[in-house]
Amino acid sequence: MSQPNLQDVDWSLIPAPDDDGAAAHLPGMTLPSLALPATSGETVDLSKLPELTVVFGYPRTGVPGQISPVDDWDMIPGARGCTPQTCSFRDLFAELKAAGAAQVFGLSTQSTDYQREMATRLHLPFPVLSDEALALATAVKLPTMRVADLTLLKRIALIIDSGRIVHVFYPVFPPDRNAGDVLAWLKANQR
Question: Matching SUPFAM superfamilies, A to Z (predicted)?
């Protein structure tokens, strides 16, 4: 399926994901030490960041005009919406920082090179982390799905404080509202 505009989506036509309980074990978990490559050229170990961190995970970003991994991509609950979700975090980035997020990261199982193209195209003010080797997804049992022989993250947002997950947004729908929900949580739980 060709996706000419990745940001204009009628969410009433897209199936919402169900809460399958796959993230219920995450709140309170201390993250293991893992270095993930970032689009900034650095590696990031989420377990070692001393302050409040927001990480939003998504299945995969598309490239305008390119073919989706499967014809019925939009009908897979939770698949469509990576670009709108990412752009909402971009657009609310300053507000998220003002509300207490020391850092914000995107996260997917795509390669850093693929993510770098997207980060540049979308003018992201934050790095995107690659879990292409599924190290983090496996270590903490992040919710995943298999599509066209790819293991992809299910859409999720984590609030991490000094290496410990303190809040989880899962399932996330519609994706373009996720950053606003995270911002509201940060404002309500300011230290």
Answer: Thioredoxin-like (SSF52833)
